[in-house]
Amino acid sequence: MAATLIDGKAFAAKVRGQVAEHVARLKEEHGITPGLAVVLVGEDPASQVYVRSKGKQTVEVGMNSVEHKLDADTSEADLLAVVEQLNNDPSIHGILVQLPLPKHMNEDLVINSIAPEKDVDGFHISNVGLLGTGQKSMVPCTPLGCLMMLRDHHGSLSGMDAVVIGRSNIVGKPMAQLLLGDSCTVTIAHSRTKDLPDVVRRADIVVAAVGRPEMVPGDWIKEGATVIDVGINRIERDGKTKLVGDVDFASAAERAGAITPVPGGVGPMTIACLLANTVTAACRAHGLKEPE
Ligand code: NDP
């Protein structure tokens, strides 16, 4: 392997350490304990794993964790009432409604019912607009984690050619906004993109957020490029269940200058950024200086 491994697990541990220090200071100097509420509707197994992990890490950094678990047949009105109660609770600084929601609910309506200043996922239309216009906002956790790893590796991203594969509201689009904010020349590719291999071959930075196991082979990667693999795909191989990304790690690592592994890359950074966003929300709520 020629590429430098970007160790998201170690980086996330560092971010959590900084969050824990900030939380300790908020408690000591201001008597504030940041609180994060996670709302889970239904029993999607992957969502249950994420919610458990978020709750555990929230407590580990010294914050309060509140979980609301609602049945899959909960009405939209009842879910909105839970969000409203959390919006009005001063001990709660961050609210996250775990997606996907059951089919009978309008996801946009629910997300936009969260108070924007408590929207630690950064999916509320106000935060999307603020990010798009370069104003202070809550930044979606997965793209924020990717950006932090890129800045850490490169220092400045100015002038670099970046290709984001995927245009979802939760990863692809905000990722592109953040890269543009850091003065990259950004291309957003998707399922209708023509000549995807050629588009990817131009990129100094490739962010793959597709949800197709090992779709990006090494020969699409420009020599020395930085590859951030957001994909989390569960596959069966050699009779075992394995997690792989959207990039074929082995062949891409031969050509890339730096690459994130799956698991241990973007995944751990996502939750670390959620915790960091919650501290930011708590500071803003009390008019205190935000973490850098
Ligand atoms: P979505 O399914 O919402 O979006 C996938 C995107 O990929 C779409 O824009 C789609 O294009 C595009 N796409 C699909 N097929 C192709 C193709 N053949 N060529 C080019 N583009 C294609 O997924 P998400 O953005 O929610 O997630 C993407 C991946 O990231 C998943 O594996 C998910 O599990 C993972 N993920 C990881 C997180 C983490 O913490 N590490 C957090 C969130 C997601 P079109 O719009 O045209 O359909």
Fold topology:
Layout (H helix, E strand, L loop, with lengths): L3 E2 L2 H23 L4 E7 L3 H16 L3 E7 L5 H12 L6 E4 L9 H5 L13 H8 L8 H14 L6 E5 L6 H10 L3 E5 L6 H6 L3 E4 L17 E4 L3 E5 L2 E5 L4 H7 L2 E2 L6 H20 L7
Parallel strand pairs: 1-11, 2-3, 2-4, 5-6, 5-7, 7-8, 8-11
Antiparallel strand pairs: 9-10
The protein binds NADPH dihydro-nicotinamide-adenine-dinucleotide phosphate.
Catalytic activity: (6R)-5,10-methenyltetrahydrofolate + H2O = (6R)-10-formyltetrahydrofolate + H(+); (6R)-5,10-methylene-5,6,7,8-tetrahydrofolate + NADP(+) = (6R)-5,10-methenyltetrahydrofolate + NADPH
GO cellular component, one term: cytosol
GO molecular function: methenyltetrahydrofolate cyclohydrolase activity; methylenetetrahydrofolate dehydrogenase (NADP+) activity
